[in-house]
Design goal:
Elements: E1 2-4, E2 7-9, H1 21-33, H2 38-45, H3 49-61, E3 65-67, E4 72-74, H4 76-94, H5 97-123, H6 128-145, H7 156-170, H8 175-178, H9 185-200
Antiparallel strand pairs: 1-2, 3-4
Helix pairs in contact: 1-2, 1-4, 2-3, 5-6, 6-7, 7-9
Length: about 210
């Protein structure tokens, strides 16, 4: 089973979602980030900013998003659209042993190592050794992500985001290690974790 764009390709395709792929990418960026500007959404979705603004305008008219002075949050209708898309489009992947095995290995190994590395970074006051440990884990994450992009092609966008944040951190811009207000390695990791949990249909505390 493979994914074309955001969608799983099967003999019997899933029921068409309420929104198209680009609308999902825009709403999902806000869902994962909690509140986001059009610029941030464009960067993480790899859509042009005018296209993002057009989608947001349409979704605002449908009461799916709320404009808080240039930053957007999802309304109840927007959250419902995102979760319906996850359920309808990714249902076939939830029964695919390879995807579940990939997630289980990520959760019990790489994710646990990253959590510890974040803690080490925060308690070390950001020394070079702690930064290097995190960047090495992100390098591994990029390679690991590419094991699953044949199933979920949009996950390549996470690899691209990780690469950008890692390059900036390597140049000494420590905000891109763990700062919550930029697209840091930690923020990207957190959003990916939320994404994969929604994709496979598992609650956050599992």
């Amino acid at each position: 089973m493979m994914v074309s764009g955001n969608r799983a390709s099967t003999v019997s395709p899933p029921v068409a979602p309420l929104i198209d792929d680009n609308t999902f990418d825009v709403l999902n960026a806000i869902y994962l980030h909690k509140m986001a500007t059009p610029k941030h959404v464009a960067e993480v979705s790899e859509l042009a900013e005018p296209q993002v603004e057009s989608i947001l305008k349409r979704q605002q008219s449908e009461e799916a998003v709320i404009d808080l002075g240039g930053s957007f949050v999802l309304g109840e209708k927007g959250t419902a659209k995102v979760l319906a898309f996850y359920r309808e489009v990714y249902a076939p992947l939830r029964a695919q042993a390879g995807v579940i095995a990939w997630y289980d290995k990520f959760e019990t190994s790489l994710n646990q190592q990253f959590i510890k590395a974040v803690s080490d970074w925060q308690t070390s006051a950001g020394d070079d050794r702690a930064r290097e440990k995190m960047t090495k884990l992100v390098e591994r994450m990029i390679r690991t992500l590419r094991q699953i992009t044949s199933d979920v092609s949009r996950y390549e966008k996470y690899a691209n985001r990780f690469a950008r944040a890692m390059a900036l951190a390597d140049r000494g811009e420590d905000d891109f290690v763990c700062k919550p207000t930029v697209d840091s390695m930690h923020n990207i990791w957190f959003e990916f974790h939320e994404d994969i949990l929604a994709l496979i249909g598992r609650p956050r505390d599992v």
